[in-house]
Amino acid sequence: GNYGEDFAINELGIKEDRIIKIGNYVGFMLDKAVECGIEKLLLVGHLGKLVKVAAGIFHTHSRVADARMEVLSAYAGLEGAAHEIIRRIYDCRTTGEAASIIDAQGLCGVYERITQNATKRCMDYTYGKVCTGTVLFHEGSRLLYMDERAKEIIGGLKRIEE
After folding, report:
1. Most CB atoms closer than 10 Å: which of 9, 88, 137, 161?
2. What is the dihedral of CA 125, 130, 133, 138, to 10 degrees?
3. How far apart are CA 99 and CA 92, in angstroms?
4. What pTM, to 2 d.p., does this model score?
5. Could you give the CA distance from residue 55 to residue 17 in angstroms, rounded to a whole number?
6. 70-100 pLDDT tens trace
7. Helix, strand, or coil (residue 92)
8. Other C-beta atoms within 10 Å of 135: how many?
9. What is the largest CA-CA distance in the chain?
10. What is the C-alpha separation between 65 and 78, in angstroms, rounded?
11. How many Cβ atoms from other residues are within 10 Å of residue 75's Cβ?
């Protein structure tokens, strides 16, 4: 969407003609990527969207599916959060509220889990036909995590543009 496009251009330095906005339709985009023979793909997304992809939800509109707090609280538990913290995250209404708790508790491994799982889910969805890297951001220009594949893909884009 617009947030991802802005982040990719302003924070990652990716040229606009290399960006395709997909909004809520991650699965459709992955199907089209396979159909078009795209070999590498950089998924740049906001915490509120990519937490769903990390859970295997490929149509991310809240009317269709929403597991944001379930995933965030489960990942916080995997990072060692106490029961009370998991409950607080689960009870949040927005990912912004949840991120405040995650940050205050030093549970930033949650962001790495989301990023790595989003990449894995996309790779699995395409049966490995599209090498995917993921960049997770929040609140405008705050980079939360970028996986190694994303770094490689961005590096390749920058070499092409030079």
Report:
1. 137
2. -50
3. 10
4. 0.94
5. 30
6. 999 999 999 999 999 999 999 999 999 999 9
7. coil
8. 27
9. 51
10. 23
11. 24
Q: Tell me: the pLDDT tens digits for 13-53? A: 999 999 999 989 999 999 999 999 999 999 999 999 999 99
What CA–CA distance (Å, rounded) separates 124 from 132? Answer: 10
The answer to whether the beta carbons of residues 69 and 114 sit under 8 Å apart is no
Tokens 């949650």 identify what position?
Answer: 110
The answer to whether residues 45 and 104 touch, using CB atoms and an 8 Å cutoff, is no
19 neighbors 3 (Cβ within 8 angstroms):
no
Distance separating alpha carbons of residues 37 and 60, to the nearest angstrom:
24
Place of tokens 């599209």: 130
